[in-house]
């Protein structure tokens, strides 16, 4: 199950988190009160040159000193603090939420055209697979994930997301099956600039996981969604594919459609599908992926999960249910349902 | 048509072979390739019965592999397995060959002026009119004609007292013949090979080969046209018939 | 001193009340079990191989066959077979020759693996209503795609795909040479491959003219004997396969006995009539991995880089590292042949004691290639003991792109796995060159049976995938999370990278 919603203001005007909290709460029926989360882009303008590393610590003793040490080895911690939280009766505080503003030292990483991203990716993979009691759940620049086990409104209030202002918001209301409602298992999943919310189940997870693991990613969250963030990072960032082509690879066209295409397009689609066969995602899913440049929503190839799109001026909404969009924006102008596998893209206008 | 001259200096074998192929397709009959240094697969799978290719330099392995028809003349030594699985045509080497010269050769002729390495003529085979010939002016190392299933291997041992001194001649031979100038020590023969007399009839059969070899390298054939050869043939065409019992 | 005779392997009896003396058994048995004396059918059970030809042709079901009618003193170590092999070798001093696949009662890993299906959290897919994609491309794949896009959105692709084989179903028929099997058997298989949108292997015996019409659906094999290999042969195949080894007899070559080298076989193999066709153990132009790379390139160069080249190896202990080496050459696919693979003839000790099962081999190869980040760049074909669509689906989930079947396709042509292929008397007309026996296969009918088998498995594979919520074969490939082990030990689970049932 699960419910998802995302919004972008293409002019990059900022929205606080209050309306998306309302919208997500409307979809409480889709969740089970065991996990919810939000991600917002543009919330840390004062540290816009740093990677904002959000960490769940079980305590601030051993795990934190280990993380401090790794970060200091690989760069410079500009600032760090506990993320402000506010006790909620319906939410049990399982972890201490912490944030670092971190500048990696580009000279320490070789063999890549983007050493800073590679350092942060390395730190995330290492902390999450090796440091007990620490989990990095957000690692991008000028963005932040806020998530926990609980109902959407409790999680929102716990982090007071109305205090954050972003031009992109994604939110997720969880009904867990693969893992119980642990905080790390809540969505959004994030790596570097990529954030993902996902409704459904990826039946091809085993194949996709092997593929990303083959390219240096460690799957540590015990759930299928994180693989989507890694696939976007691999295809989008490392291989440099634009978002719509990433979607064409992940929700590839059917062979019979490809066969009917004009020669040049057929050749491209065939090459794309053969190159990224192991990245093809199967099973029921609706997914919204965000980067600082925009959002992309898409469903599986046979539309086993719902997805609705709304537009109003510079704002583009993607959600599991139309009503949630209308909660956020009662004046939304056009509402439509995209075709299966068709990417819905909202880009910022720079 | 004018001969095509190719300067192969620094050229990869794929474009080189492409050039050769397209020239042959256009009807070029003579191709000269200069500055050959280690390019493998030259004339690989090439067809054309009246095409002559001259190679100046040292070609890489699998020279003339699967070649069907052309004559290829090399001024220099050749590497691993020249004439490999050659179908027909001629390869003339003004120098020495490496290991596994004429490996699995099915037809045509390979003439080597000097010496060859190990396993020369291994698994050569014949069928119908196709009868491969490997002729060597100097000597050969071990396992000459191993598993041979047909064709002729000739070793002249020019300038040597004993033509072949290495072991394992004709191991597993089950077809064809190995002819070596002078006597061959029995202990050099491999399993399944036997030495028989070289008769006048054999000489009659072999003299065209001897003459053609000598002609290629401008050698007077007269001293070689006698019966002072050893002929090594299969002890049986079914060398493994007696090895097994049914379950 | 006489060792005397060993007891009968099979005892044939005829229900004389049922028998109508139609003589079909007499006519059909090429091993000479039946003869007529004074209008009576006399049985010589000692000659019986349990090929079932007589039983299947008897219109009255009058014939019965009993295996091992005479008991030995039972003993767990000194099995009947162990004792009889000793007696055989004491008599002959020879290597015991055997047919078909590994006959030792090793555990079958396929039967200790179970597939997954969807319930609630994701829907099953009905392959009748919804698209189900089994199309498989075999060959090298790029590691990433490169292209440029202009202002109008037109894409200019920079990445050039090398030739791949396109299969409608991830199931091919493996290499069984003309010589080892009859022309009618091979022709049936070739026709079936074409009908089914897949490919068949020619084996190492060259290509008979009769197969030319199906050459676009054939993979030509080049083995250490290089039989029938010339440039025309290489160009005929849709792909070329270098056979390095065979699962049923890793590390040794093959001998087609002279009896099977009839006129047509000798012509196709390009060797003299009646001469043994000997394939040496190694390719004598391959003594190292770089030599293999050289042969791969040589074949590509000879065919102007238009054909995919596969390399087949037997599943031996270091199979994963060897496959990784092959993947680094220009080879398009690695074929892994497990030790349960069939053969026309192999020394029994090799057939039964050397190599390893395909399940572990394919998983290890897939894992090694994955660890090295090159899994998708090369195809993996599994073979050796694949009996049904379940084995097929499990092979793919363990990491194969496609499988080869051999024995199953022969069973579709009548074979009853009697294991006497090396004798050249196959009463089903499969493993023989005797004209009257070969004529027992009508290639039209035979091809229909083989095509039916492929269709049946293909339908079942679609159903299995649909039940698992997968509509594309790519999503099953290597998908260990849709497999569980049932009573496998931890070491093996680790190799297979599967969890236990319930985990």
| Termini Cα gap of chain B | 65 Å
Second rung of CATH, namely the architecture of the domain at 96-234 in chain B: 3 Solenoid
Query: Quick check: average pLDDT of chain C?
Result: 95
Apparent shape of chain C = globular
Q: What's the CATH H-level superfamily name of the domain at 96-234 in chain B? A: Glutamate synthase, alpha subunit, C-terminal domain
Report Rg of chain C. Answer: 24 Å
Q: CA-to-CA gap between the ends of chain C?
A: 62 Å
Biggest sheet overview of chain B: 11 strands, mixed
The CATH class of the domain at 96-234 in chain B is Mainly Beta
- Using only C-alpha atoms, the radius of gyration of chain B works out to 18 Å
- The count of helical stretches of chain C stands at 15
Share of β-strand residues of chain B: 25-35%
The SS-based structural class of chain C is alpha/beta
Based on secondary structure, the structural category of chain B is alpha/beta
The oligomeric state is: heterotrimer
Q: Domains counted in the coordinates of chain C: how many?
A: 2
Task: Give the count of helical stretches of chain B.
Answer: 2
Poorly predicted runs of chain C are none
Write the layout of secondary structure elements.
The complex is a heterotrimer of chains A (350), B (247) and C (503).
Chain A: E1 3-9, E2 15-16, H1 18-26, E3 36-41, E4 51-57, H2 62-74, E5 75-82, E6 96-104, H3 115-130, E7 134-138, E8 143-148, H4 152-159, E9 165-166, E10 168-173, E11 189-191, E12 194-200, H5 205-214, H6 226-238, H7 243-250, H8 255-260, H9 263-275, E13 285-291, E14 294-299, E15 308-312, E16 315-319, H10 322-328, E17 334-336, E18 344-347
Antiparallel strand pairs in A: 1-10, 1-16, 2-9, 3-8, 3-10, 4-6, 4-7, 5-6, 11-12, 12-13, 13-14, 14-18, 15-16, 15-17
Helix pairs in contact in A: 1-10, 5-6
Chain B: E1 4-7, H1 13-25, E2 30-37, E3 52-58, E4 68-75, E5 88-94, E6 109-112, E7 133-136, E8 149-155, E9 175-181, E10 193-197, H2 200-216, E11 229-234, E12 244-246
Chain C: E1 10-14, H1 24-28, E2 34-37, E3 40-43, H2 53-57, E4 63-67, H3 80-92, E5 95-98, E6 113-115, E7 136-138, E8 147-149, E9 155-157, E10 165-167, E11 171-175, H4 183-195, E12 200-201, E13 218-222, H5 231-236, E14 239-243, E15 254-256, H6 263-269, E16 277-279, H7 289-302, E17 309-314, H8 319-327, E18 333-337, E19 346-347, H9 348-353, H10 358-371, E20 379-383, H11 389-397, E21 402-405, H12 407-411, H13 435-438, H14 443-467, E22 483-485, H15 490-496, E23 499-500
Parallel strand pairs in C: 11-12, 11-21, 12-13, 13-14, 14-17, 17-18, 18-20, 20-21, 22-23
Antiparallel strand pairs in C: 1-4, 2-3, 5-19, 6-22, 7-10, 8-9, 15-16
Helix pairs in contact in C: 4-14, 8-10, 11-14
């Amino acid at each position: 199950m699960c419910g998802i919603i995302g919004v972008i203001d293409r002019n990059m005007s900022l929205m606080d988190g209050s309306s998306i909290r309302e919208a997500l709460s409307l979809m409480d029926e889709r969740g089970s009160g065991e996990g919810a989360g939000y991600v917002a882009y543009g919330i840390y303008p004062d540290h816009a040159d740093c990677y904002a590393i959000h960490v769940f610590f079980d305590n601030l003793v051993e795990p934190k000193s280990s993380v401090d040490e790794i970060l200091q080895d690989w760069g410079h911690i500009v600032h760090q603090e506990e993320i402000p939280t506010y006790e909620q009766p319906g939410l049990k505080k399982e972890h201490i939420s912490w944030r670092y503003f971190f500048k990696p030292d580009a000279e320490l990483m070789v063999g890549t055209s983007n050493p800073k991203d590679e350092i942060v990716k390395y730190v995330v993979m290492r902390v999450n697979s090796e440091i007990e009691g620490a989990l990095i759940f957000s690692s991008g620049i000028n963005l932040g994930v806020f998530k926990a086990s609980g109902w959407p409104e409790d999680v929102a209030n716990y982090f007071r997301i109305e205090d954050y202002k972003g031009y992109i918001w994604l939110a997720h209301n969880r009904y867990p099956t693969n893992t119980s409602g642990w905080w790390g298992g809540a969505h959004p999943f994030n790596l570097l600039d990529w954030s993902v919310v996902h409704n459904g189940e990826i039946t091809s997870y085993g194949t996709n996981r092997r593929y990303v693991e083959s390219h240096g990613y460690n799957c540590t969250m015990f759930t299928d969604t994180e693989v989507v963030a890694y696939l976007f990072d691999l295809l989008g960032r490392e291989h440099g594919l634009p978002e719509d082509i990433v979607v064409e690879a992940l929700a590839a066209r059917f062979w019979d459609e490809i066969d009917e295409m004009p020669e040049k397009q057929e050749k491209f689609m065939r090459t794309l599908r053969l190159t990224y066969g192991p990245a093809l995602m199967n099973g029921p899913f609706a997914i919204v992926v965000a980067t600082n440049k925009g959002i992309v929503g898409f469903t599986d190839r046979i539309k086993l999960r719902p997805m609705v799109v709304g537009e109003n001026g510079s704002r583009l909404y993607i959600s599991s249910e139309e009503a949630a969009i209308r909660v956020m924006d009662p004046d939304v102008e056009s509402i439509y349902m995209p075709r299966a596998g068709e990417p819905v893209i909202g880009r910022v206008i720079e | 048509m004018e001969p095509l001259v190719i300067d192969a200096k620094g050229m990869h074998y794929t474009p080189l072979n492409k050039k050769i192929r397209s020239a042959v397709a256009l009807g070029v009959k003579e191709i000269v390739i200069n500055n050959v240094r280690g390019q493998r697969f030259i004339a690989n799978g090439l067809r054309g019965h009246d095409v002559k290719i001259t190679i100046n330099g040292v070609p890489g392995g699998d020279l003339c592999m699967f070649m069907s028809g052309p004559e290829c003349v090399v001024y220099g030594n050749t590497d691993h397995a020249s004439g490999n699985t050659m179908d027909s045509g001629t390869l003339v080497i003004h120098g020495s060959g490496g290991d596994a010269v004429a490996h699995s050769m099915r037809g045509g002729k390979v003439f080597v002026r000097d010496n060859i390495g190990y396993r020369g003529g291994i698994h050569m085979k014949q069928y119908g009119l196709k009868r491969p010939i490997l002729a060597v002016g100097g000597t050969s190392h071990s396992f000459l004609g191993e598993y041979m299933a047909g064709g002729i291997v000739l070793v002249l041992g020019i300038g040597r007292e004993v033509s072949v001194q290495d072991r394992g001649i004709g191991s597993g031979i089950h077809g064809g013949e190995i002819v070596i100038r002078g006597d061959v020590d029995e202990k050099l023969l491999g399993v399944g090979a036997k030495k028989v007399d070289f008769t006048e009839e054999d000489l009659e059969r072999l003299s065209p080969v001897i003459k053609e070899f000598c002609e290629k390298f401008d050698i007077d054939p007269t001293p070689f046209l006698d019966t002072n050869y050893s002929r090594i043939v299969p002890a049986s065409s079914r060398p493994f018939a007696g090895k097994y019992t049914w379950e | 001193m006489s060792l005397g005779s060993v007891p009968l392997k099979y005892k044939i009896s005829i229900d004389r009340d049922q028998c109508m003396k139609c003589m079909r058994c007499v006519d059909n048995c090429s091993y000479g079990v039946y003869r007529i004396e004074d209008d009576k059918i006399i049985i010589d059970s000692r000659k019986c191989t349990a090929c079932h030809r007589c039983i299947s042709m008897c219109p009255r079901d009058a014939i019965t066959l009993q295996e091992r009618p005479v008991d030995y003193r039972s003993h767990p170590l000194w099995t009947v077979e162990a004792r009889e092999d000793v007696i055989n070798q004491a008599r002959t001093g020879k290597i015991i020759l055997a047919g078909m696949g590994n006959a030792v009662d090793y555990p079958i890993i396929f039967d200790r693996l179970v597939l997954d299906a969807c319930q609630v959290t994701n829907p099953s897919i009905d392959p009748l209503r919804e698209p189900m994609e089994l199309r498989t491309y075999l060959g090298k794949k790029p590691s990433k795609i490169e292209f440029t896009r202009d202002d109008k959105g037109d894409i200019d692709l920079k990445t050039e795909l090398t030739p791949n084989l396109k299969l409608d179903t991830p199931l091919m028929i493996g290499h069984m040479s003309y010589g080892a099997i009859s022309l009618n058997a091979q022709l049936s298989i070739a026709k079936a491959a074409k009908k089914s949108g897949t490919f068949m292997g020619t084996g190492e015996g060259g290509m008979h003219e009769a197969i030319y019409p199906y050459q676009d659906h054939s993979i030509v094999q080049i083995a250490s004997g290089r039989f029938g290999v010339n440039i025309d042969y290489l160009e005929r195949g849709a792909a070329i396969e270098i056979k390095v080894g065979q699962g049923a007899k890793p590390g040794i070559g093959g001998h087609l006995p002279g009896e099977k080298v009839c006129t047509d076989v000798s012509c196709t193999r390009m060797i003299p009539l009646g001469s043994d066709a000997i394939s040496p153990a190694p390719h004598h132009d391959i003594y190292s991995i770089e030599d293999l790379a050289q042969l791969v390139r040589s074949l590509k160069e000879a065919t102007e880089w238009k054909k995919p080249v596969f390399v087949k190896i037997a599943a031996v202990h270091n199979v994963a590292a060897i496959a990784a080496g092959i993947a680094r050459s220009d080879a398009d696919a690695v074929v892994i042949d497990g030790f349960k693979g069939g053969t026309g003839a192999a020394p029994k000790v090799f057939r039964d004691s050397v190599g390893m099962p395909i399940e572990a081999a394919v998983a290890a190869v897939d894992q090694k290639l994955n660890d090295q980040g090159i899994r998708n760049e090369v195809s993996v074909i599994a073979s050796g003991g694949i009996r049904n669509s379940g084995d097929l689906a499990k092979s793919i989930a363990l990491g194969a792109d496609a499988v080869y079947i051999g024995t199953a396709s022969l069973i579709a042509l009548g074979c009853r796995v009697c294991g006497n292929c090396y004798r050249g008397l196959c009463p089903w007309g499969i493993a023989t060159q005797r004209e009257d026996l070969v004529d027992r296969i009508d290639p039209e009918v035979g091809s229909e049976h083989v095509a039916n088998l492929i269709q049946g498995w293909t339908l079942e594979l679609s159903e299995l995938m649909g039940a698992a919520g997968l509509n594309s074969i790519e999503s099953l490939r290597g998908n260990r999370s849709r497999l569980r082990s049932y009573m496998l030990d931890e070491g093996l689970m680790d190799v297979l990278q599967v969890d236990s049932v319930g985990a």
